[in-house]
Amino acid sequence: MTKCMILALYLPQFHQIPENDEWWGEGFTEWTAVKRAERLSKYSNQPRIPLEGYYDLSNASSIRYQSQIAKKYCIDGFIIYHYYSNGKMLLSKPAELLKENREIDIKYCFSWANHDWRRTWYGYNKEILMKQEYGNLQQIHDHFNYLLSFFLDERYIKIDNKPVISIYRHEYIDNFELYYKTWNELAIKHGFAGVYFIQTMNSESNEFKEEYFSASFCFEPGYTIRSKMMRIDNNRVAIKKKLYSIFNINKVADVRDYRKVSKIIENRQIKSGQNFLGVFTDWDNTPRYNINGTVYKNADVESFKRMFSSQYMKSIKNKHKMLVINSWNEWSEGAYLEADTTSKFSRLDVIREVVRGDADEWFWFKTSSK
Q: Residue 226 — pLDDT band, cuts 50, 70, 90?
């Protein structure tokens, strides 16, 4: 059977940085929002509480434990969000700790999250906190040189001797062609065959640019809810949000059906062997957006098992290099694989069962009959 890497998106937000202290208050981390979350809908499971406690990613022991759990449950590696704006970096400590502690046994690569930082989180306005900026040729070199020490790490994921990096919003980069050309040239200069650029297919960017990207992956559920049906649904949500704002109704406006969205994901046809698939564990981002958030109902373990099994088997059949899970630890969006006090390790159990082929015959029959 062809090997397909199971990779989980990884948020490095769980440690204190000066910028967050300034923007949100002393001691702020992602846990601040997670802890103060409230149950705004009958479908909402809040607050979410990690089974192993509220960890701190400014020390290697937390990352080491996460890596051990991931390996135990057949997660091959993490796609770590990389925040870099023309020399300015945020939340880089966890990746740097991982690089420095070579005994931590986990594969990893980066997703360059090249977007502005705004005060839209937690119900505020659209004030820009840090503008995403791009550089001239020298600054493009500087960015590559920062990444190079990671690329040279034997644990950093490479495909065809090319270090892998996903670009979150390539269309935001006016001089992306220069990045593409320069980074490939520099990678070859340092002994690689180039850079394996992966395009993130999401709610905005969904036309594959094969002239730049070796592959793409489906960021779920964003990639799926961009469909015409979901856009009609979004109009309804916008009206409800306006009404709730006028009448100060403490209710979440947007409730979607996990089973409905997962069915679309399961039934979608593969566009090409380079269009890597994605799944999501759950979704409830009300800790960040309050009543303006989105909650998914019917996000039970059995539905996740059906979606993951379907996408994993399609990935194997189409000889895909990877399958991407949203995510390992997006606690403020309710999208995480880590164990919580409600579901424990159930979703991780699903992955291990499916990857090892331990799922019972009844389940496989039920899945194939849908």
A: confident
Tens of pLDDT, residue by residue over 332-344, are: 999 999 999 999 9
Nearest to 16 by CA among 103, 111, 114, 91: 91
How many CB atoms are located within 10 Å of the residue 137 CB?
Answer: 11
Q: CB count, 10 Å around CB of 258? A: 22
Domain boundaries, the chain: 5-368
Rounded to whole angstroms, how far apart are CA atoms 91 and 83?
Answer: 7
Cβ proximity of 321 and 215 under 8 Å:
yes
With 0-12 / 13-18 / 19 or more C-beta atoms within 10 angstroms meaning exposed / middle / buried, residue 13 is buried
Residue 157 in 3-state DSSP? coil
- Residue 228, pLDDT > 50, answer no
Long-range contacts of 299-304 (CB under 8 A, 24+ apart): 299/258, 299/334, 300/258, 301/343, 301/346, 301/347, 301/350, 303/258, 303/259, 303/262, 304/262, 304/279, 304/347, 304/350
Sequence length of the chain is 370
Contact (Cβ atoms closer than 8 angstroms) between residue 148 and residue 195: no
Which residue bears the tokens 């306005």? 125
Phi first, then psi: give them for residue 267, nearest 5 degrees: -90, -10
Structure tokens given for 47: 């607050």
Tens-digit pLDDT profile for residues 136-172? 999 999 999 999 999 999 999 999 999 999 999 999 9
Burial 283-316 (b: 16+ CB within 10 A, else e): bbbbbbbbbbbbbbbebeeebbbbbbbbbbebbe
Q: What is the pLDDT of residues 14-50, one digit of tens each?
A: 999 999 999 999 999 999 999 999 998 888 899 999 9
State in words which class domain 5-368 has: alpha beta
